[in-house]
Design a protein that fits this description.
The chain is an alpha+beta fold. It is built from five helices and 14 strands. The longest helix has 14 residues. The N terminus is likely disordered.
């Protein structure tokens, strides 16, 4: 027997509302590519500086503000790349780059009393599960409140959801951005499956559930449809893709 190498996975049970908000803020501040977050309306102000800074440094911030009253609807401009509001309470959850996150019962953030507990984690296998729950159970039920304008191009995205988001914004602005996709071939064509490829073309469509109207078939589907100069079409997915032709490692979008 030999000692296993440390994995770096961490779990923390949190019993304090103050600590929950601190951990959420730390996740947002440490994010490099993506933040997925739900937070009740009466706690949004405490996290606003961290959210604004994340948006300013180019992080994709996907935000649901829950427990919103009709007479106090928050303004999400500057705080999110795309944001939705919901009148109902929901668990507070956050993931940063799908590797670190936290889940807390709704009552733990909105009430000071009680014996509720939150779980903070640093584990890549768990992040996508929380993201799936977020997009599957809560995001579609909220109402879109804010979305940023298309970013100036060129831009290179290693966070695939961000590439899909921006490609969608540009398509809906009447532009089909040129693109270079670096990744792995998943489906058999004239090339070998598993081959690392770089392919260029233009984005002609997206499959997504980030901004209305949604065009995906299942909640976590995010895909690009790329057409080459030769007229060949490829579907492109992100890490873990299984229904698309290509699994992308990086996507560069350029002006048409």
């Amino acid at each position: 027997y030999s000692a296993a190498e440390p994995t770096g996975d961490q779990f923390e049970v949190i019993k304090s509302r103050v600590t929950v908000l601190k951990r959420i803020r730390e996740r947002v501040e440490g994010a490099e590519g993506e933040v997925i977050l739900s937070v009740p309306a009466d706690r949004l102000e405490e996290l606003a500086p961290a959210l604004r800074a994340a948006v300013d440094r180019g992080v994709l911030v996907v935000l649901v503000v829950s427990n919103v009253t009709e007479d106090e609807e928050p303004t999400l401009e500057g705080l999110a790349s795309v944001g939705r509001i919901w009148r109902q309470p929901m668990p507070s959850m956050v993931t940063a780059d799908q590797s670190e996150g936290l889940v807390a019962p709704a009552e733990m953030i909105t009430r000071s009393e009680g014996e509720h507990q939150a779980i903070a984690f640093a584990q890549r296998q768990l992040g996508p599960v929380i993201v799936g729950s977020f997009f599957g159970n809560y995001w579609p039920n909220a109402t879109e409140s804010h979305s940023v304008a298309p970013a100036a191009l060129p831009q290179t995205y290693e966070e695939f959801r961000h590439a899909v988001f921006q490609a969608t914004l540009h398509l809906r602005a009447g532009e089909a951005p040129a693109a270079t996709v670096e990744g792995t071939l998943l489906k058999e064509t004239d090339d070998d499956v598993g081959e690392e490829i770089e392919i260029q073309g233009r984005i002609v469509d997206t499959r997504q559930g980030l901004i209305e109207p949604f065009t995906n078939d299942f909640p976590v589907e995010n895909a690009l449809v790329l057409e080459t100069d030769a007229g060949e079409r490829y579907t492109v997915g992100g890490p873990g893709a299984f229904v698309e032709d290509i699994e992308a490692d990086a996507v560069t979008l350029r002006d048409p």
